[in-house]
# Entry
Amino acid sequence: MQIGMIGLGRMGANLSRRLIKHGHSVVVHDQSADAVKTLADDGATPAASLADVVRQLAPPRAVWVMLPAGEATETTIAKLTDLLDAGDTIIDGGNTFWKDDLRRAKDLRERGLNHVDVGTSGGVLGATSGYCLMMGGDKDVVARLAPIFAALSPGGGRPAQGSTASQGWLHVGPNGAGHFVKMVHNGIEYGLMQAYAEGFQILAEANDANVPEAERLPLKIDEIAEVWRHGSIVESKLLDVTATALKGDAGLKDFSGRVDDTGEGRWTIQTAIERAIPVMTLTAALYARFRSRREVNFADKVISAMRKGFGGHSEAKNKS
# Structure
């Protein structure tokens, strides 16, 4: 299939490469001419503007927007709306707030355009292992774009028997559902990361000077992280990136431990508050990130290391 990709950051560039690898034609655009050239060297078709993207796509067009949630996505979708024709589809693969999807989908529908929101999980590792994709939108539109989603998924385009969930992609419901499910996914991620981080802090301080000498345990936490990766009930991709970070730097000296949050955890908790759903673990995990910006501990460094490992996230600089 043919698709346009707007936004060639870590995720957009890797999504494009995976699609090219599986035989799809990708027309790419980014504010950075260097980013466009790099993808063109990798087999993509370069476009100098949004209008150029639209001109190079055959109807019915599909344009994937992979930009930060908020103004960047809002502005780009508004411009595309004026350039596309009835029957074309805009795919929002960023971490957009799901209620914004409802508004945008309604506006696009009135113009004869389709909207598909795609919760995209996999981070920088997805370029090789594939992405978990959660789609919201019209069922027929998602079905037409199935070859794109299948290629991006861990299944790599292999035919699915029955539900596509086992392949790593799924139409989860109407507009907004894709980003709603991804929002909750990221809220859970906060809790899991915090649990790992706190556990590793206990291990790291097992030989601390404040512990009675007879009870001190000199533990090699890098090797403990590694052994847990093999057969343990707590093995996971998050543990994989933690073990990688600890290897050779068990003290995580390269990390300050300032942990940012990108919105999805807050939205998950706000939704729970609106619906009186108790989410104690997820709330505590978000508050721990707030605390990390005031008073850092080893657990915060573990979370920073995980975020860099799976998402390529750099730590924000402290404000002077």
About this structure: The chain has 14 helices and eight strands. The first strand starts at residue 2 and ends at 6.
